[in-house]
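input
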Amino acid sequence: MARPRTPLLSRQLIRDTTLRMIDEHGLGDVSMRRIATELGVRAPSLYTHYPTKDALLDDIGNLIADDVDVSGFETGDWREALRAWARSYRAALAAHPNMVPYLASSPGTRPGALDRADAVHGGLTRAGWPPRTATLIGASVKYIVLGAAIASFAGGFRGDRDTYDDRYPHLADAHRLAERAAEIDHDSFELALETFLVGLEPQFAALGGSR
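output
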């Protein structure tokens, strides 16, 4: 029997192909029709596996979330658990930056996101944080991570020194930022995260918590 000329469709093939297209071309340029064309099939074939484009994007979101580490909230110290969660979360988004707008806008509907939110909230409340404060801590960490993932601060500066010299005297070295963007963005994220954690300590001590 002759082999099929196109690969048999599966959810994994559709999902992986779509994620590759998003990584290469951006979220706005990807439609079910274009995904079908990339796979060599007709668009209605995709709907057998995914009823809507949002369902497909949600599945991709769950795939990306698999790389986010919340295991420390089970038994570990809440501070280290927050560090591991924030750092792995940032790394997962950095691997697929074109998905960040979608992931930021629909976190409360994906099973993967809800599983991790449940783990974070459960770990914080077991450590002694009141439920409302645990919610605020989780939200604050996500703000830090998403802010770091949306765009590069250092990468937004031009490499032309003349742009800053005269009119912006305090930005005389700003032209050097772009070439060190990865380092500066990483260190800025770490500064925000560590400063936030340090700021939580007095609140935790007031609750009777301990190191």
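quick obs: Residues 81 and 121 are 11 Å apart (CA to CA).
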